[in-house]
Amino acid sequence: MALTDIEIINKFKLKPKDRILDVGGSMKQHTDIKIDTLVDILHPSESHMGSQKLYAKKFVRLDLNTDIFPFEDNEFDFCICTHTIEDLLYPFLALKEMSRVAKRGYLVTPSFGNDIIFSHVDITNWLTGIRRVPGISHHKWLFYQKQEIVQIIPKNYPLLYSSEFQYSNWIGEEEFEYYWEKEIKWNEINDLDFRIIITKYRDFVKRNKSKLKRTGPVAVYLDNPYFYLKEIAKFFLKKGYGFTNK
What we know:
Blueprint: H1 5-11, E1 20-23, E2 37-40, E3 58-61, E4 78-82, H2 92-101, E5 104-110, E6 141-146, E7 149-154, H3 157-161, E8 169-170, E9 175-181, E10 186-188, H4 194-207, E11 212-213, H5 225-237, H6 241-244
Parallel strand pairs: 1-2, 1-4, 2-3, 4-5, 7-10
Antiparallel strand pairs: 5-9, 6-7, 8-11
């Protein structure tokens, strides 16, 4: 479980005078931490999850996939980036820029295991039809740590839909957490050779066999009747992200 704002302050000994950068936090701001600058492509007031006021001192609009951060080297004492880089088409520029502009920081993504297990049946979330998906459907990367280096591997949906990887329960950690000083050390596992991706997925399953569970086929739309009734009720009551976007 990722740290709360108060736990972040205490664990990393953040001081009131520290300049803190929040990368990609518009959807869920760190309201108990004194954020100097928030960078994101959307202002908190533009969030599809509901308009929010800006709690940070400043907001800078950036496309984290392509934009160089408009800050000096080591301008910030601490950088927070939670549940952002897994969404990016190209997260490596943002990782490089965080390393450049901040002296140290805290990075959080969903854990590898948590983001590959299949959800319960869902027909309302984005109004794209009834389906079960591995993890969160818009995530593009999976993360794990080997020694002090973050391993970053493409989240390949066709591979996860294959029978070998149809898992529906994960009893390990929910989130991947990484504290860094001076620089974020990462290794991109490229998908040009698909055999490498398959091998990495198999290695993860082998290391975590006791934490991954199967409950039958997941690529077909069979689930506990409770979840069908729940989704039908949401559909008729027009509840869910797909409806709130209207």
